[in-house]
Specification:
Mean pLDDT: 86
Number of strands: 8
Shape: elongated
Low-confidence stretches: 22-36
Helix content: 25-40%
Structural class: alpha/beta
Largest sheet: 8 strands, mixed
Order of helices and strands: HHEEEEHEEEEH
Number of helices: 4
Strand content: 25-35%
Radius of gyration: 23 Å
Amino acid sequence: MNRRNDPLASRRALLRLAALGLPVALLAGCGDLIPGQGEPPNLYRLTPKSTFPADLPSVDWQLVLAQPDADAALDTTRIALIRETTRIEYYAKSGWTDRAPSMGHTLMLESFENSKKIVSVGRRAIGLRADFELRTELREFQAEYEGGAIQVHVAINAKLVLAAERTIVGQKNFSLKVPVAVDDVAQVVQGFDDALGAVLKLLVDWTLRTGAATYRKPA
């Protein structure tokens, strides 16, 4: 057994230090030697969109969703916040259950499925023979503090690509800011859920309408 990673050995080492009369404060600083003793982070997840306009068109073409792109500051499980224009911070002891682009990818897929208006939608990785591909970029996904007020900012750039010709048939930016009344992580997360949900609703609506106006079923 590797005694370096043995929690019992680590505990015995602390007891020996205590017997030597080392200050309690110093021993407390050695707490990281014992695995599992740190405070676990609070993990949060968001929800897909499930309500759409009554006149949303039904389509008989297939759609594949590429994994959203994002810069390194957002491609993380940490919850981002901005207090200064050029500086990104993160909430302490809190995070998403998955990296933000990956979480958004899953919620996007579930939102399209929940619309019940498309014959088939899937991830690029499953090798679906699609008529269209939706490529997205997560450009904003953070809480913003300004003048004592808090808001959540979500922005997604979308490009709808005709798969057979590899041409872009539509491009649109979706951006929304939702105010948060209380400076509390749980309230901020609810702001993320509201903002992303509204953006996903617009994204699904635009994709289906743009594709319906463009698609020509093969003879």
